Structures are given as structure tokens and as C-alpha cells.
Amino acid sequence: MRHVHLLDTSLASDNLGDEIIVSEARKYVSAHFHDAYISSSSSHDGLGYYGRKLAGDADLVLLLGTNALSAKYQGRGHFVWSVGRRDFKALEGKVVFVGVGANTANQDVHPRQARLLKRLLSPNHTQSVRDETAKEILDSIGISATNTSCPTLWRYSSETPHIPTKCAPSVCFMLTQHKSSENDLKLIQSLRKCYQKLYFWPQQLRDLAYLRQLTDVSDIEVVPPQLEAYDNLLANTDVDVVGTRLHGSIRGLLHKRRSLAIVIDNRAGDIGRETGLPTHSRDELGAELVQKLNEGFPTRLSLPVNNIDLFLAQFRGGSLHDL
After folding, report:
1. CB within 8 A of 77, min separation 6: which ones?
2. How many angstroms separate the CA atoms of 81 and 59, rounded?
3. Residue 27, Cα to own-chain centre: how many angstroms?
4. Bridge partners for 147 per DSSP
5. 184 and 249: one domain?
6. Residue 216 sits in a domain of what CATH number?
7. What phi, psi does 292 have (nearest 5°)?
8. Total structural domains in the chain?
């Protein structure tokens, strides 16, 4: 019986976006390893005593999504994927990325980081990355990778999203405190012009404190910072989703809500450019955004179906469309 160990990027994470990614990625793990023993540990905390033993015993170690690929040397420390010296033996040659993205647009890979990745990543598998920036990092050091986009969008490789084009009466918006900008207030002001009701979902708890610093919140209903609460809103309220949180926006799409990701870094920019995910520049949050929201926009996604199939076929010899 195969033993597959998951490096779960949602454990010990303060970002609920990681839960969104992992919840979708696990669906494909379950489908392609339905007969395997599955164990897991936190990628953020790194391998402790028990995690190291589980990973060491595993045939394969899957790193589940998020922006865990860095061109800078990451090693053990404050990073999404924490690796210490004692972890090398347990992980060596076993790790396979599942829709992992780059956390920076910098393409100059540090020599120590190149050695680390070559030592840990499986030479027998093609790695799945979610954007061209990540693929270029791995290509530059001779590691085979395919751009599958993010697992949160994989369902749309065989399914057409039926998303409204016109404004809903309400909007749920998101902000990113650690990438704050004076334009964030413009975003809120623009949304007030377009919608009767505003909801705010803090994907990280510090985002709520940031919102309160920006504006009076008496006309804004705060959704509890739980994925279940957000899903409940999306499932039961006629609402658009707009904001600087990429995966909060994608979760809106998964509930068939019109969603618009405000681009604040390479991640939303890359995925939007490569898949057609609706995005909007953070530098155009006044009249331009109001016009776009009021006039409406289509959602036409294009996923790299062959790349997704190629990646998943390594594990079952099947296709994404067999799921």
C-alpha cells in the first residue's frame, strides 16, 4: 500500500486563503490516491519529530499549493515551506509540488536554494506549479515543471463557469493589510457607489484592524473570519466578490458569484493573464472600477487542460476528466 504524506499549507497558517487552496487540492489527492495511506503535517512549522517520521516512511510527499516557491534561500525559518537540516533525509527526492506558486517575481535563484530544491524535489515526477513565474524558477535550475494553474481553478478545465455579468445588489470585499496602499480607501469608496450593501471578509485577522483604520465601518457588515462563514454568505446571498485577496476572489467564483481580483502582486497578475480570471489594476480604483462594475464584464476562463492531465496521470494513469 502506498503511503503519501501531505505538507499541508493550511495548518498553522494565519491566512484562510491557504484553507481555500488545500480544500480543493485534497479533492484531487483523494481521487488519485484513494487506495493509499495519507498522513499530513504543517508546511509552515516544518517537520517535527512525528512529521519527520511520517515523511521518512512515505513513498511520496506532496506540497499542497500556495506561494511556497522562493528564488531566495528559504531553509528553516519564517516561510510557507520551512525545511531544516534534520528534514533532508525524510524528504530527499520525494517532494512533488501540487499547484505551488512563486512568492516573488525575482528570477535569480540563489545557489543554496537551487541545491535545496534539487535535493528535495522528486526527479521522477513533473512538478505542478500555478504560474509561469514559478515554472521559470524551476526551469532555470533544470527541474521539470508544468504550469497547471492553481488547483482552486482545476474544476474549470472541464466545466464552464456560469457567472453573472451584471452587478449584484451586494458586494463582499477583501483587503490585504501587509500590502496596504492609499488606493485601498479608493476601492471602498468605489464599492459604496456601486452597491447597496457592503460585506467585508477578513482573510487574515489583521485585515479587519486595517479596515477600521481606513474608514467608518458602520455601513459594512463584517463576515466572521472563518471559511465556513464566508461559504455560507456566498451560498445564500446575491453578492459580488471584489478585493485584493486572490483566493478569496476565486472562492467567490466557485460559488458562481461574479468576482474581480484587484492585482497587488505577481500572483493575481500571473494567474489572471494566464487563465482569464477577471482582474483589475490597483492603480485604477476610481471611476475606472466603478464603470467596469456597473457596465459588467464576462468571466471566460481557459485552463491548461493538457498540463493538468499530464501532471495527474503520473499518479493513477488517469485523466482529470475521469474524476
Report:
1. none
2. 19
3. 15
4. 129
5. yes
6. 3.40.50.2000
7. -65, -45
8. 2
